[in-house]
Specification:
The protein is of the alpha/beta class. The chain is built from eleven helices and 14 strands. The protein has a ten-stranded mixed beta sheet with strand order 3-4-5-6-9-10-11-12-13-14. It has a two-stranded parallel ribbon with strand order 1-2. Strand 9, helix 5 and strand 10 form a beta-alpha-beta unit. Helix 4 crosses helix 5 and helix 6 packs parallel to helix 8. About 0% of the residues have low confidence. It binds S-adenosyl-L-homocysteine. S-adenosyl-L-homocysteine (SAH) binds next to strand 10 and strand 12.
Length: about 350
């Protein structure tokens, strides 16, 4: 980025890359452990915080690299459940959202993987302006570190379910996973990370082959090709049949139970026929169904079913032997759903983003 005159973002480097860079600068290899720990375990936001690194080396680092954390533009705290939603400003002025949720087992953070999104799902606010750009691995980790610092508490779970389609930014997401799971740094294992995708089939298969122990969440939302295509353009590229094959492959390779995300939209995917179809798809595989009453997005004009209807839908699934939960709708009073806060805070309408062409 021009802001840093050709300097590299040091948080982007893996441990080995950092070690190599330091050696090339004539430094001892053990410095890599100290610096990597400052960047990743201690979530440092500047070189000057690195108190056990000499001033001379800090200056040398500043000549070659930069280190910063995203700036908090706005924070909203839910009165209902203490959920915090952050609007973070990045180096180039673009904004993204992250959400911190408090569960009995610790802090869970939902991060964004792109600025905007080009997948065009009809119920989602993140996609309204298309894709502006991918986030770097450092920017993904930066969201966790900024929140961890502010909360003065370790983040125990990460869900990649904020703005963006993570598998559409595959290389940087993978680099991020490598950085965050390194024991010499933050050390967050795959078992504590969930990646949610709208269903990019080839990338699901590629991810299965990486040998990570991530939980895969699949945004299913409809159980026939026709209905899925009506609300998710990605379904025009990959059929449900291909998608289920990829999900089965993921399970086969990783042994991790897949989670099906199903946003309930009134009059669209909440009928008895939908229950039956969903039970058939889910019943054939080791999975869990997460029901999310759709979070209304004004521009989209879609409504959530009544509460009793949502409960009935869940009960009917359970009667068919399906393991289902209704997602706790955390932070609904603070524009908790994907991309809603970013959208609200933008003074001008989005226009520059890129969308996947609608290839019916
Ligand atoms: N692109 C990824 C991750 C981001 S969205 C994906 O599609 O999975 C995270 C989840 O929230 C997805 O299941 C998405 O379909 C769902 N979602 C988006 N907008 C929503 C809304 N307004 N109400 C309910 N769920 C929504």
């Amino acid at each position: 980025m021009t802001l840093h005159e050709g300097k590299k973002d040091i948080r982007e480097l893996t441990f080995d890359e950092l070690k190599e860079a330091l050696e090339a600068m004539g430094e001892k290899a053990y410095r890599a452990s100290q610096i990597f720990s400052w960047i990743h375990s201690k979530a440092a936001g500047s070189f000057d915080e690195m108190s056990d690194i000499s001033k001379a080396l800090r200056e040398k680092l500043k000549e070659n690299f930069y280190l910063s954390l995203p700036e908090t533009e706005t924070v909203r705290i839910s009165k209902q459940d203490g959920t915090k939603k952050y609007l973070f400003k990045l180096e180039d002025g673009e904004c993204i959202e992250s959400v911190r949720m408090i569960y009995h087992h610790g802090i869970s953070v939902c991060i964004s993987s792109q600025v905007g999104c080009r997948q065009g799902c009809s119920f989602c606010a993140s996609t309204l302006g298309g894709l502006v750009r991918n986030l770097t691995a450092s920017e993904m980790a930066g969201q966790i570190y900024a929140i961890s610092r502010e909360s003065k508490e370790r983040v125990s779970n990460v869900v990649i379910m904020g703005i963006g389609e993570p598998l559409d930014n595959y290389d940087e997401v993978l680099r991020f996973l490598k950085l965050i799971s390194d024991e010499r740094g933050y050390g967050l294992g795959g078992r504590n990370i969930t990646l949610s995708t709208c269903g990019l089939v080839p990338k699901i298969r590629e991810l299965a082959d990486e040998g990570l122990k991530l939980t895969l969440a699949l945004s299913l939302h409809a159980v026939t090709d026709e209905k899925r295509q009506a609300i998710m353009p990605v379904a025009k590229r990959y059929s449900l049949h291909e998608l289920m094959d990829a999900v089965d492959y993921y399970f086969e390779k990783t042994g991790r139970r897949v989670s099906f995300e199903y946003s309930l939209i009134k009059g669209v995917n909440d009928s008895d026929v939908d229950v039956k179809g969903l039970a058939e798809l889910a019943g054939r595989r080791n999975c869990h169904v997460n029901l999310i009453p759709v979070n209304p997005v004004t521009e989209r004009g879609l409504k959530e079913p009544d509460r009793t209807h949502v409960l009935e839908f869940k009960n009917k699934l359970e009667k068919r032997g399906i393991n289902a939960t209704i997602r706790r709708e955390m932070g609904r009073d603070i524009e908790g759903a994907c991309g809603q806060l970013r959208r609200q805070m933008r003074a001008v309408p989005f226009s520059k983003g890129e969308s996947v062409p609608d290839e019916a």
